[in-house]
Amino acid sequence: MPATSLGLVLGASFAAGLNVYAAVATLGLLHRFQVVTLPPSLAVLAHPLVLTIALVLYVVEFFADKIPVVDHAWDAIHTFVRPPAAAVLAYAAVAGVPEPWRLGAALLAGTVALASHGGKATTRVAVNASPEPFSNWVVSLGEDALAISLTWLAATHPVLALGLAIALTVAAVWIVVLFFRLLRGMKRRVFG
């Protein structure tokens, strides 16, 4: 699988782990307005029905993600949406390669999206602990901007997106590991 295909797959997968609807809508709009030509198997993302659903769900997520308790419930539900959606997109994106490579791409994409999603959810737990709502809004807007920007980068400059997706995935995993170490330390202090 060439680096350009891998860059599209991993960049879009990391973005989907943050906001799958933003990633799908961005890819669809880029293709629809001929900014990029997606692989034929992903051209369906530019269909008006798919774009409408992705954009409506993006708007719902945009507001749900700004409300501290609602965003946790939304993220919990999307643990079962974002990684599988990234895997399906990856599987479709590499339609021209042999089946084992397609399945490998899907597994890798789902894992990257899960890491991204885990980093997002973990960061949100820490940010929502502050009593003021503004930090939550700023982080949420930053996640949206990163999801859209990384999807654009994956579609227009996939090799750059590949490097960035790898670095961001490592950072997301590190955030999750750090969070669980902090929880374990707090548990020891409280329960001895």
Description:
- The protein is 82% helix and 0% strand.
- It has helices at residues 3-32, 48-64, 68-78, 82-93, 99-128, 134-156, 158-191.
- Helix 1 packs across helix 2 (48-64), helix 1 (3-32) packs across helix 7 and helix 3 packs antiparallel against helix 5 (99-128).
- It is globular and about 55 Å long.
Question: Which features does this protein show?
Answer:
192 residues, globular
Total beta-strand segments: 0
| Sheet/helix structural class | mainly alpha
Contiguous low-pLDDT stretches (5 residues minimum) are none
* Beta-strand content estimate: under 5%
Radius of gyration over all CA atoms, rounded = 17 Å
**DSSP summary: helix tally:** 7
For the largest beta-sheet, the strand count, sense and barrel status come to: none
Residues in helices, as a percent range: over 70%
How are helices and strands ordered from N to C? HHHHHHH
Quaternary form: single chain
C-alpha end-to-end distance: 51 Å
> Mean of residue pLDDT?
94
Shape: globular
